[in-house]
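Quick one:
INPUT:
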């Protein structure tokens, strides 16, 4: 039986971008997961009835960090290839492996993407936006997606090659080092941004702006110890910043 082709893996990577398009409270990412895995099931199960049975199984509850889900998708594809040839693992075994991978990837993926890479990209974009808004926006998008899209595309191949062993201490160590390096870069970018805002062009900012910046830093430090803000908190925060910006201008 032929393994996954490059086209199959690229199709899975592309579909994984819509992993949460059908997110719901009952199955969360389950439907998106099954749709993303469908190219592998088409490859390994030529019999339509069997393929639909496997597809239905994969619509069950699943949840993880969306980008690192590519690793789990690749590993699940490898297991389905093995299952098509030998009958193992069975449905219950596949569910246990999926849930274990999902929780492990979520634990490290949230720290890497939500709490490290996203703030770092925003800081770099904001810093460059002080010179050119377009340059800042471009830098933000490129900084985040250089890592995000690389992991999303290559993660399918890593998971397919290694299976569940993709979550070995070697990979965990690499991701931990990325988190540490990103945190250090974020601190440096935050310092540079504060300096650029306090003394733009060599002229000190108004006292009102300095006080507002100091207050924002305090709120930001307090917020880092919490779970990500809710949509309502984001909306209120953006409204407050817009009001403050209009008042200072």
């Amino acid at each position: 039986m032929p393994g996954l082709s490059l086209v199959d893996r690229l199709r899975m990577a592309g579909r994984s971008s819509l992993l949460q398009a059908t997110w719901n409270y009952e199955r969360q990412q389950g439907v998106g997961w099954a749709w993303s895995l469908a190219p592998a099931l088409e490859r390994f199960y030529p019999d339509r009835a069997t393929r639909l049975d496997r597809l239905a199984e994969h619509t069950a509850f699943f949840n993880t960090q969306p980008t690192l889900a590519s690793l789990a998708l690749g590993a699940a594809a490898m297991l389905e290839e093995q299952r098509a040839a030998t009958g193992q693992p069975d449905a219950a075994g596949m569910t246990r492996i999926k849930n274990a991978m999902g929780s492990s990837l979520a634990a490290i993926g949230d720290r890497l993407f939500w709490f490290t890479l996203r703030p770092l990209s925003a800081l770099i974009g904001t810093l460059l936006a002080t010179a050119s808004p377009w340059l800042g926006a471009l830098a933000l998008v490129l900084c985040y997606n250089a890592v995000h899209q690389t992991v999303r595309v290559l993660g399918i191949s890593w998971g397919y090659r290694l299976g569940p062993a993709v979550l070995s201490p070697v990979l965990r160590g690499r991701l931990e080092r990325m988190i540490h390096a990103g945190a250090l870069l974020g601190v440096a970018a935050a310092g540079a941004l504060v300096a650029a805002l306090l003394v733009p062009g060599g002229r000190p900012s108004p006292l009102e702006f300095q006080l507002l910046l100091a207050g924002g830093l305090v709120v930001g430090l307090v917020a880092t110890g919490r779970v990500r803000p809710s949509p309502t908190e984001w909306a209120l925060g953006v409204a407050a910043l817009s009001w403050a910006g209009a008042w200072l201008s």
